[in-house]
Each structure stands twice: as C-alpha cells, then as structure tokens.
Amino acid sequence: MRRSVLIGGQAGQGVAKAAEVLGKILVRLGYYVFNYRDYPSLIRGGHNFNVVTFSRQRVFSHDERNYEVIVALDQRTVETHRDEASDKTAFIVPSSVKAPNTMSIDVASAFKQGIPPIAMNVILLGALARYLGVPKQVAKSVVKRELKGDFNLKAFEYGYENGENGKRKVGKVPKKGLYFLTGNEAIGLGAIASGIDMYIAYPMTPATPVLHFLAAHKDKYNYTVLQMENEIAVINAALGASYAGAMTMVGTSGGGFALMAEAMSLQGMSEVPLVVYLAQRTGPSTGVPTYTAQADLLFALHVGHGEFPRVVVAPGDPAEAFRYTIEAFYLAYRYRVLSIILGDKHLGESHFTMEEGEFTPTVKPERFLVFPEGDYKSYEITDDGVSPRSVPGAISSPVRATSYEHDEYGITTEEPEMITKMMEKRLRKADTLEEAVLELEPLTVYGDPAAERVIVSWGSTKGAILDALAKLPDWKFVKINYLKPFPRSLFLNEVEEAKRVVIVETSSTGQIGKVISMETGFITEDKVLRYDARPFTPEYILRRLRW
After folding, report:
1. What are phi and psi of 183, to 5 degrees?
2. Does 230 share its domain with 344?
3. If phi over 0 gives left and psi between -120 and 50 gives alpha, with beta otherwise, what is residue 222?
4. Are 107 and 246 part of one and the same domain?
5. Could you say which of 233, 332, 393, 419 would form a disulfide bridge with 339 (CB–CB 3.0 to 4.6 Å)?
6. 467: containing domain
7. Which helix (H) or strand (E) segment is 19 a member of?
8. Are residues 249 and 192 part of one domain?
9. Alpha-carbon distance 389 to 357, whole Å?
C-alpha cells in the first residue's frame, strides 16, 4: 500500500533537504520511494513543499492528497494543504503552528538547549521518524551521513525523543541494491560513464543541478567543468572543444537553448559531434521557471536553420537518463551529429528509487577517430553519410570545420553540384541513424501488449502513467523514447488496431500528437493534457481517462 508524507514550509527552512533525508532513510529500510519537489522562484519565503511517497512495491510518482502525515514548518503549510488531508492525517508541527490532529513539538525549548533555529526541520524530521516507527539507529546513521554538524544529530535526537509513536510502523523490507537519485544526477553519472572530457554550461534552472553535480566530481573522474558568461559562449566553446577532440556536453533550459539555436546549425554544417541536455521548464519566456512542462518538444526537433540530422532522446526516469545519456554520446560521436537529451524539471529534480540492475549501458561511447597517414578529407562523401573523423594535430593533413557549404576537404564552395552532393551526404546520416536507433530501444510498451486501449506519451510522464496503469488492466502504455529518429513502424504496430489511443503530455497542445501525425500519418484527437506547470499524478490521469 502506498503511503505519503508532505513536508512544507518557507524557502530557506530546509524543506527539500528534510524530504531527501527521509527518502534515504526509507530506502535504507528497503522501501521504494518517490520524492516530488515543489517550490517557487524565491530564495527566502514563499511556500515550498515535498511529497514523499513510499511503498514495498515499485512507486514511480507522488500522491496529491490523503497524506498520512503533513509536517508543517509554518502555518501557511497547514492552510494550503488542509483540504488535501484526510480525517486520519497527522500534523507534525512546531508549537507555534496550529493544526488538527496535531503532534506539537516544543522547538523553543530545543533552541534554549543550544540547537540552532536553522535545525527546526531536523527536529521535526526526528519526530516524523518516531511517528513512522523508523528504528532510531538506522535514521541516525543516515542523518549523520547526509547532514554535517553535531547540532543536526542533536536536533534529530530531540525530535525523536519528544515525538509520539504512530499506529503503523514502517518496519524493514528485505530488499537490497536500491538507488535513490534524481534524473539530473543520473544524467551526470551517464556523462561520466561516457568518458566526458568537458561539461560547459551557464546556470539555468532546472539544468543547473547537473552543473553542480559534475563540478563536485570532476577531480575524482578527471574531466573539466566550465561556466561561461552566457549560453552563446557555452555552445560555441563546446563545439571548439569537440573539434579539438574532447568529448563535450552542454546543459541548459528553454531560454538558453534558444540562444544556442544558431550554433546548433553550425553543428549541422560542421558535423562536429555535440551532446546537449535540454531541461524543460514552463514557458514561454521566463514563464514559471521552477516548474515543469514538455512544451519544447517541437523546438528541439526543429531547432536551427537549414536541414540537418539530429538525435532527440527523452528519458522518463533516472535509469533511462543514465542509459540515454550514454547513448546520446555514442550516437553524437559515432555519427558526427547533434544529440539532444530532452528532460524537464520533474524528471531532473525528483528523487526516484531505482534498482541496481537497471543501470546497464547498451553501447560504449568513444571518440571514433581515424588517423590516416596520407590524404584526409574532412567531409568525405560516403555511402552512409558519415565522414571518417580526425582531429587537428593528430595527423599531418589539415582537419577542417566550417560553417560554409564546402567540398570534401572543407573548402568553401558555391557550386550547385557540390552543394547537392553535400546536402545529400548529410541527410543520408538520417537513414543511418534510424537503423542504429532501431538496434537500441526507441519505444517501450508497458501493460498488456494485446490491450486495445493505448496511452501514448514520452519523457517524465512515465512515472504517473505506470502507477495509473496498475488500475487500468485493459490498457497499455506506449512510451516513445526516441523522438528523432522516430520509430515509425514500431509505433504503428502498437496503435493501428487500437480502439482508443490517448495522448498524455504536460503541454497545452499535445505536441507529441503533431509529431506522430507528421512522422506516421496516424491522427488522434484524444488527449489528456496538463499545463498548470505541475506534473501528472496517477489520480489526475485516472480522473481524466474516466471523465
């Protein structure tokens, strides 16, 4: 049975950290945990909350009401979430906060004992652990590892000792090999596993955590992290680094991605390999910058002027984020193309519990360089459209990269015949890429393969759909992993005989439906869309499907 805890308070009160530590305690006990983070674009004040949903069975999303416990660090949390509580919901609060079914903790006495007010979140975390029946020593070992300073241990002890026992203890589950991590952390790990040499970025929520994660591990794994002055500098520096031989990746969100558009066309002409992580947030413009959306799909598929092949892959959980980051590097460097990893805030900043065996790469990225002793053509015309790649200084011949149309040596040309040959060479890579992606897993089917009712989606909607699917025995879920190249025949095999096909997407227009129509000719107007900047929950999907 799923159980959920909401922790809420102001920005700066440590809401997110308390939820993360709670999640890690529960994972230590063997539970599957999903931790959703909701926060405004404020450093202090406002209202932040996390929902920690856990179960003995797999859980991929959060609940939106009927929480077992609400931990309220301030009065606003009580007022905001009172209607989402049930009659059985317990409120754990400091003594200054008023709520029904209250377990009140005298934090003022704790402060008099030398515990700093900044540790109030840890005091209430201790009381919550006691209420849930978490073994004290298990919880303390996680707190000691995750929170620096003896005062945090003292704060946890105070909360635990002054808390009350709830009616349902969590207990231990005989389960090992569980990981608790965010999509952003998994993308960073995938980049490290790919052999990244350089990550270049300008901070932009929700991609910034990848910058922080990779910066924290750069010395251990021997790569460089560089923060530039803006996104135009970022992508041009990345192309320069890749041209010189470095395995390079950049990360950004919508506004930064827009600034990079011209240089992505430079990639298309120069054929310098590049990996780009696009972490979507709610737009247009600055929009709602700390919330989620899937509205940049068409932008990613068509970014840049002119026509050139690219890869667009969309993970739906950390295991996929790890795997598809590695595949993005492999495809970019094997085929000299632009690989876009299309994520969003919900995937990037939520914590998921994944199993150890799910982090298995399918390919091994490398630089795919050649070192000919004689004549070298930087843009040799080949049957598969992929010109053998070298780097400057590695061979005696010049290695050219250019933004101009060119001949096989990279010399500028305006001759119609050569322009045609080069355009056709580049576009042949699209067919080559399609064959390569079919060897991976461009599409995944969940549920009953013979079901005649089909949910179609991509990316971070995966979790809520999977949890909803448990209550939809006559449905299946077709998740499209590769948006470009699009798996046309595989997709049509799953939907052509269906009685109902429903698009689920965090956008106002259902962009994946447009992509499907454009790629396959298949049209469905049946859509479940959400565009209030919040992610789907299983309850939301079930309500809309049955409406």
Report:
1. -60, -35
2. yes
3. left
4. no
5. 332
6. 443-546
7. helix 15-28
8. yes
9. 34
157 and 184 both lie in a single domain: no
pLDDT tens digits, one per residue of 157-202: 999 999 999 989 998 887 789 999 999 999 999 999 999 999 999 9
Separate counts of helices (H) and strands (E) for the chain: 19, 20
Residue that terminates a domain, selected from 162, 192, 221? 162
Domain identity same for 452 and 493: yes
DSSP letters along 43-70, please? SSEEEEEEEEEEESS---S---S-EEEE
409 — pLDDT class (breaks 50, 70, 90): very high
- Hey, is 241 helix, strand or coil? helix
Q: Which of 293, 341, 334, 367 is nearest to 484 (CA)?
A: 341
Which H or E run includes 144?
helix 136-146
Look at the chain and report how many structural domains it folds into: 3
C-alpha span between 64 and 503 (Å, rounded): 22
Cβ atoms of 392 and 399 closer than 8 Å: yes
Instruction: Note the pTM of the prediction, 2 decimals.
Output: 0.96
CATH of residue 283:
3.40.50.970
Q: Do the bridges between strand 310-313 and strand 85-94 make them parallel or antiparallel, or are there none, so unpaired?
A: unpaired
Which pair of tokens denotes residue 351?
């914590």
- Does residue 128 fall inside a structural domain? yes
Task: Scan for tokens 């009350």, then name that residue.
Answer: 164
Check: CB of residue 383 under 8 Å from CB of residue 203.
no
CA–CA separation, 429 and 332 (whole Å): 11
